[in-house]
Amino acid sequence: TILIVDFGSQVTQLIARRVREAGVYSEIAPFTMAEEAFKRMKPAGIILSGSPAGVPEDGSPRAPQMLFEAGVPILGICYGQQVMSHQLGGEVRPGHETGEGGEFGRAFLTVTKRCALFDGLWEEGERHQVWMSHGDKVTKFAPGFEIVAISDGAPFAVIADEERRFYGTQFHPEVVHTPDGGKLIANFVRHVCGCAGDWTMAQFRETKIAEIREQVGDAKVICGLSGGVDSAVAAVLIHEAIGDQLTCVFVDHGLMRMGEADQVVSLFRGHYNIPLVHVDATTLFMKGLEGVTDPEAKRKFIGKTFIDVFEDEANKIGGADFLAQGTLYPDVIESVSFTGGPSVTIKSHHNVGGLPERMNMDLVEPLRELFKDEVRELGRELGLPDIFVGRHPFPGPGLAIRIPGAVDRDKADILRKADAIYLEEIRNAGLYDAIWQAFAVLLPVKTVGVMGDYRTYDYVCALRAVTSTDGMTADVYPFDGKFLAQCATRIVNEVKGINRVVYDYTSKPPGTIEWE
Ligand code: XMP
């Protein structure tokens, strides 16, 4: 086990993720609780995270001194390196005092000496790309340490005390912009700390089940299903932990993809035998969306109505103390602003934001530390069918935001058919898993066409497909022309109401993935 001491860096969870990828279990403890966590966990190693604070600042966080005397290997990252240097008798000075600026972004370091952290990876004299983000720096290192790598802006890019097995990196090995970072962390947890590296998602499942049982006791839990992967995985996991103390509520807004509402129902009732309330609220949603053309107004209406319907059902069920949600780590980061200023709302994504406050219930969020691909892995581990687990992300407001302008039942039906044909073609071509998201959009534009001897005057359908790792940025998927022509032909021939198909070539930024 590895103890990660959190000093408040935005990317602490990425450290945990890299440790998981190395097959080792870790727990994150805020620096204020690190001593207690250490005594409870008896970890084989400790990683000290970065921080928005600076070591020279008054009141900035410190690690419990006992951690340095416990005889356990330590890796200090960025602030972690500085705080370790400072607490062990070195000196850290603000960038502005040393007359040199900090380093932010991509940097290169040169390895000056071998050390256990670099085993089988980096050799003396080599240069490697890393990601730096620091203003302050270590100006005098603590007794026992030596320099093993330097960079232009940081003479102490990596320091090591091989005897005590203490290491410090000025850069961030946990981010993807440090290409070898995952391997360095794996070296630390496996070679230096001697962890076996055999931890798996199966063990995550066991640990979480125990935690859920402890948190919930014999209370009742309700869980809102969206039809997506996250809420489904959370529900199945919680059901495994507490059985029929869990009730799921699936609010069906009638804006799902083809066949998906039925799939959710049969998966939960048929496959897992999990108590499920299926509320078909299509009429309510469609009526409320009548004449609503503004994208934000659509999102707000759908979010609010979802909560209203869910709350009604929860009251009918009665007596639940906990609300379960499939919150993932990226949702957690996005909901906290580290920028200091108000961030601009591009789209109000939070589908059911406000639900927990309104329901006044405690939350059960077993996926809070996972990333999307890890949730998929956990879903497979729990036996969810591949077609469900591997599904492209789908926005909470559903097809409503893929129909620019006013939404109605007919348009939703037309779009659903076109979308299903497009996805079927993508699956048949074996491209589904290479694409982050692919979908059709129904434009509120009619154009003239000719079919047989007749003039047609119908809607335009736009196709979109992007690659991405997190939805924050995206590239257009470069289909070949033949493939797109095949999709266009099938859609125009098979879907009444569409007579023209176009392909969206816009990356994100400047476009967004969804059209609204
Ligand atoms: P955009 O369109 O902002 O989308 O580039 C980025 C990712 O977020 C999804 N998305 C949403 N997901 N509720 C959601 O749960 C929403 O309101 C919402 N809007 C966009 C989008 O599908 C893409 O994966």
Automatic annotation (TrEMBL):
Binding of ATP: at which residues? 226-232
Which is an annotated GO molecular function term of this record? GMP synthase activity
* SUPFAM superfamilies recorded: Adenine nucleotide alpha hydrolases-like, Class I glutamine amidotransferase-like, GMP synthetase C-terminal dimerisation domain
Q: Which domain of life is it from?
A: Bacteria
| Catalytic activity as recorded in UniProt | XMP + L-glutamine + ATP + H2O = GMP + L-glutamate + AMP + diphosphate + 2 H(+)
Question: Which residues does the entry assign to the active site, renumbered to this chain?
Answer: 78, 172, 174
The record's listing under Pfam families reads: GATase, GMP_synt_C, NAD_synthase
Q: Which UniProt keywords apply?
A: ATP-binding, Glutamine amidotransferase, GMP biosynthesis, Ligase, Nucleotide-binding, Purine biosynthesis
Q: Which function does this protein serve?
A: Catalyzes the synthesis of GMP from XMP.
Name of the protein in question: GMP synthase [glutamine-hydrolyzing]
Per the UniProt entry, what species is this protein from, by scientific name? Croceicoccus mobilis
* Gene (UniProt): guaA
